């Protein structure tokens, strides 16, 4: 069993643990020990795959000799060979381009435009990057992986607080870096997790930290983790005579960030666009900055370069039938992939109808790509558009409310074969839109709630209801 998860969450790899326990209870035999992989899963996952292949080899030989070419067993082994398992990881990546997550392309920044209007409580940027000479290709619905850096002042504050030598050498991922460069480029110093606190508590020999981590204090631990980072911990719980390598051992690898691509390659050859909402806020007496979003907003000015790669998303694609209607629901920066959808449909002269649901706080300051959408409406490319600006009305109105208001037409479009897409916040928006969709289908399709829910599941199975939520 190989579990994939994120140790910053309380139930780290819980699905893998549950399956492993249940299968063992049912009498299954483990070929290898269970491995729980964190976000930097590459090394542990590859090691597990190697171990699994070795464990399967004897079974492969037995099955092959027993089959003796008689048909069923032999064909099963042919359809799932160890060679395919060993070669499957990364085979597709090398076919398209020599650039990948491990070897990103350094893309020059062509444009960095602030989309938010004056007076907006948000800060949203439109970035355009050159892919010229990279050989990188993408489709609408794919994501751009951005290899980011930590904030330099935060790095310096952390090193000063730890009283460590910024020039001390650290070996990481077969590279040797100075401690400062390692903190800048290689390690996550902003995400707090239980795993980090457990490791650091041993170094700091802090009874208070151990109490916080003890059984029965889960609620207090959640409260402590929220809105704090590594610097907060080392300031509150200093460790004496700490060595650089010891502290680095408590940290996770700094992960690339994924942004929904906001452009069509057909309309923008050798370029890629993304939409970035810069995250800045105050918490526990300090100003906080989103690692990737402020890196892109502040550093990625025209003339700068950003290491990037393409992350394909085969579960968020335009319909193959260009005549199929498309319904797009994307408030805030969730609008990004739908800008790509419209550029693609326009570039390919797709005759299918298009309907956009967009929402944000204020029409005057937060209508992202407003002129483009208005032009699409004027040209007839965008058949319908419904807007929800929550702070412009006495009662807050969101995209799910517009979906309910337009329920009859939405159901009619679905009956005509429309594909429905949702992009944006998973915790609230996507959940509320999903509930509204079931209610709309029940009401206007004359179905029970159970039958409407099954209708939605059918849409998902047919890939006519796709979500890119986070």
UniProtKB/TrEMBL annotation:
<dbReference type="GO" id="GO:0005829">
    <property type="term" value="C:cytosol"/>
</dbReference>
<dbReference type="InterPro" id="IPR003097">
    <property type="entry name" value="CysJ-like_FAD-binding"/>
</dbReference>
<dbReference type="Pfam" id="PF00258">
    <property type="entry name" value="Flavodoxin_1"/>
</dbReference>
<dbReference type="InterPro" id="IPR023173">
    <property type="entry name" value="NADPH_Cyt_P450_Rdtase_alpha"/>
</dbReference>
<dbReference type="GO" id="GO:0019344">
    <property type="term" value="P:cysteine biosynthetic process"/>
</dbReference>
<feature type="domain" description="Flavodoxin-like">
    <location>
        <begin position="1"/>
        <end position="53"/>
    </location>
</feature>
<dbReference type="Pfam" id="PF00667">
    <property type="entry name" value="FAD_binding_1"/>
</dbReference>
<keyword id="KW-0028">Amino-acid biosynthesis</keyword>
<dbReference type="InterPro" id="IPR008254">
    <property type="entry name" value="Flavodoxin/NO_synth"/>
</dbReference>
<keyword id="KW-0521">NADP</keyword>
<keyword id="KW-0560">Oxidoreductase</keyword>
<protein>
    <recommendedName>
        <fullName>assimilatory sulfite reductase (NADPH)</fullName>
        <ecNumber>1.8.1.2</ecNumber>
    </recommendedName>
</protein>
<keyword id="KW-0249">Electron transport</keyword>
<dbReference type="InterPro" id="IPR039261">
    <property type="entry name" value="FNR_nucleotide-bd"/>
</dbReference>
<dbReference type="InterPro" id="IPR017938">
    <property type="entry name" value="Riboflavin_synthase-like_b-brl"/>
</dbReference>
<keyword id="KW-0274">FAD</keyword>
<keyword id="KW-0813">Transport</keyword>
<dbReference type="InterPro" id="IPR017927">
    <property type="entry name" value="FAD-bd_FR_type"/>
</dbReference>
<dbReference type="GO" id="GO:0050660">
    <property type="term" value="F:flavin adenine dinucleotide binding"/>
</dbReference>
<feature type="domain" description="FAD-binding FR-type">
    <location>
        <begin position="102"/>
        <end position="319"/>
    </location>
</feature>
<dbReference type="InterPro" id="IPR029039">
    <property type="entry name" value="Flavoprotein-like_sf"/>
</dbReference>
<keyword id="KW-0285">Flavoprotein</keyword>
<dbReference type="GO" id="GO:0010181">
    <property type="term" value="F:FMN binding"/>
</dbReference>
<keyword id="KW-0288">FMN</keyword>
<keyword id="KW-0198">Cysteine biosynthesis</keyword>
<dbReference type="Pfam" id="PF00175">
    <property type="entry name" value="NAD_binding_1"/>
</dbReference>
<dbReference type="InterPro" id="IPR001433">
    <property type="entry name" value="OxRdtase_FAD/NAD-bd"/>
</dbReference>
<dbReference type="GO" id="GO:0004783">
    <property type="term" value="F:sulfite reductase (NADPH) activity"/>
</dbReference>
<dbReference type="InterPro" id="IPR001709">
    <property type="entry name" value="Flavoprot_Pyr_Nucl_cyt_Rdtase"/>
</dbReference>
């Amino acid at each position: 069993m190989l579990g994939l998860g994120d140790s910053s969450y309380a139930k780290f790899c819980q699905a893998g643990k549950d399956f492993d326990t249940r299968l063992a209870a049912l009498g299954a035999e483990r070929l290898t020990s269970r491995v729980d992989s964190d976000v930097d899963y590459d090394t542990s996952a590859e090691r597990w795959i190697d171990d699994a292949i070795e464990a399967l080899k004897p079974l492969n030989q037995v099955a092959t000799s027993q089959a003796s070419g008689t048909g069923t067993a032999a064909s099963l082994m042919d359809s799932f060979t160890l060679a395919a398992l060993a070669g499957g990881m990364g085979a597709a990546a090398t076919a398209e381009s020599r650039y990948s997550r491990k070897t990103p392309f350094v893309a020059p920044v062509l444009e960095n435009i602030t989309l938010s209007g004056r007076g907006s409580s948000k800060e949203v940027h439109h970035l355009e990057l050159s892919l010229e000479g990279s050989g990188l290709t993408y489709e609408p619905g794919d994501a751009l992986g951005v290899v980011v850096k930590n904030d330099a002042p935060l790095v310096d504050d952390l090193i000063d607080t730890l009283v460590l030598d910024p020039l001390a050498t650290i070996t990481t991922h077969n590279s040797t870096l100075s401690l400062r460069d390692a903190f800048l480029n290689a390690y996550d110093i902003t995400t707090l997790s239980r795993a980090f606190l457990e490791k650091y508590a041993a170094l700091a020999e802090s009874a208070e930290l151990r109490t916080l981590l003890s059984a029965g204090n889960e609620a207090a631990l959640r409260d402590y983790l929220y809105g704090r980072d590594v610097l907060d911990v080392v300031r509150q719980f200093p460790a004496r005579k700490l060595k650089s390598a010891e502290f680095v051992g408590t940290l996770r690898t700094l992960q690339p960030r994924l942004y929904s691509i906001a452009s069509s390659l057909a309309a923008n050859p050798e370029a890629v666009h993304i939409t970035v909402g810069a995250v800045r806020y105050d918490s526990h007496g300090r100003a906080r900055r989103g690692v990737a979003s402020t890196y892109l907003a502040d550093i990625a000015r025209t003339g700068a370069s950003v290491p990037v790669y393409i992350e394909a998303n085969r579960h968020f694609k335009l319909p193959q039938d260009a005549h199929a209607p498309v319904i797009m629901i994307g408030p805030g920066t969730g609008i990004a992939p739908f800008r790509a959808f419209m550029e693609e449909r326009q570039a390919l002269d797709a005759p299918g109808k298009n309907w956009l649901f967009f929402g944000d706080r204020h029409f005057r300051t937060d209508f992202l790509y407003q002129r483009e959408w208005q032009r699409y409406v004027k040209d007839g490319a965008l058949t319908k558009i419904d807007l929800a600006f929550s702070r412009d009305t006495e009662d807050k109105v969101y995209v799910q409310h517009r979906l309910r208001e337009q329920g009859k037409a939405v159901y009619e479009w679905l009956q005509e074969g429309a594909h429905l897409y949702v992009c944006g916040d998973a915790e609230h928006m996507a959940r509320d839109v999903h509930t509204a969709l079931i209610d709309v289908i029940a009401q206007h399709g004359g179905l029970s709630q159970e039958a409407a829910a099954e209708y939605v599941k059918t849409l998902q199975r047919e890939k006519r209801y796709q979500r890119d939520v986070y």
